[in-house]
Amino acid sequence: MGQMDGMVAIVTGGGDGIGRGIARRYAREGATVVVAELNAEAGQRVADELAELGAPGLFLQTDVSKKDDVLRMVSTTLERYGRIDVLVNNAITVTPEVPLHMKTDEMLALTLGVGLWSVWWAMQAVLEPMKAQGGGRIINFYSVDADNGNWLHGDYNAVKAGVGALTRTAGIQWAPHGILVNAISPIAASAAFQKMVEVNPGILQAIPMMIPIGRMGDPEEDIAPVAVFLAGEGSRYITGATIPVDGGLHVPRLNTRPPDLSVFEG
C-alpha cells in the first residue's frame, strides 16, 4: 500500500529533473501519473519508467505555454481516468543569464508563458473537476531567486513571484471546496541547474559553502517526498503555504552578483 494509492496526478515538465523525480516518486507511492512534457522522447521515457515501477503512466506531449495544450492535458486526463487528485505545476524554462537591463521582451514572454500563464490556465481548468469530486491538491513551484533578486534571472524572478501570489490567493479562496494549494521552493540538481553549471562550472565547488546541508537536493529522494506529503492526508491543514526544500539555503540565501559586471557592458 502506497501513500497515493488510487490517486491521479498530473505533473507538468515531467520528463526531466524535479518533474521526473516527482512522477517517479508518485508512481512508487501507487499513483497514476500523467507526464505532461514538451519533449516527446523524454516524456515517453519517463512514462515507460513508471510502467517498470508497476504504476500506470500516461505521456501527453504538452506545450504548457499554449492554453489549448493545457486544457487538452486536463480534459484528456479526465476522459481517461475520471478524476484529477493532484496537479503539479512544475514546468519552467530558462532564458540566457544576463542582468535585467539585457533581458528582452521575448525572454519575458517565454518565461511568462511556460512559468506563469501555464499555472494560471491549469489551476483554473482543474477547479471545477476538483470541486465536483470533493477536493484536490495543487502544488506549484516557487524559488528563492524571487526573494534574493537573482542578478541574472530577472524574468524568472518575476514569474516565480507571480506563482507565489497565485498560490496564496487560491489557497485561501479554494480551501472551502477542499482544494488545498501550496508551493515548494526547491534547490535540486534539476535540468535548469545543469544549464547553470554549464555556464558557471565553479558553482559546483561553491555548493558546500552556499547550502547549509552541504549538497544539492536529489529530485526524487529530497524534493519529491515533500510533494507526496502535500498530496496526502498529512497536509490536510496546510494551504497557501510555500515550503522551502533547499537544504537551508533560504536562511543565508545566495549572493548572485556576477564577479565581473564588465562582461555585460558594451
Nutshell version of this structure?
By secondary structure, this protein is α/β, with parallel strands linked by helices.
Shape summary = globular
- By DSSP, the count of extended strands is 7
Percentage of residues in helical conformation: 40-55%
H-E order: EHEHEHEHEHHEHHHE
What fraction of the residues are assigned to beta strands by DSSP? Answer: 5-15%
Distance between the termini: 61 Å
Task: Going across the biggest sheet, name each strand in turn.
Answer: 3-2-1-4-5-6-7
Biggest sheet descriptor: 7 strands, parallel
What structural class is derived from the secondary structure elements?
Answer: alpha/beta
Gyration radius from CA atoms, angstroms: 18 Å
Can you characterise this structure?
With 266 residues, this protein is of the alpha/beta class. 46% of the residues lie in helices and 14% in strands. It has helices spanning 17-28, 40-52, 67-81, 105-133, 145-148, 154-173, 191-199, 203-210, 219-231; strands at 8-12, 32-37, 57-61, 86-88, 136-141, 179-186, 242-245. The chain has a 7-stranded parallel sheet with strand order 3-2-1-4-5-6-7, with helices on both faces. Helix 3 (67-81) runs parallel beside helix 4 (105-133) and helix 4 (105-133) runs parallel beside helix 6. The relative contact order is 0.14. The mean pLDDT is 95.
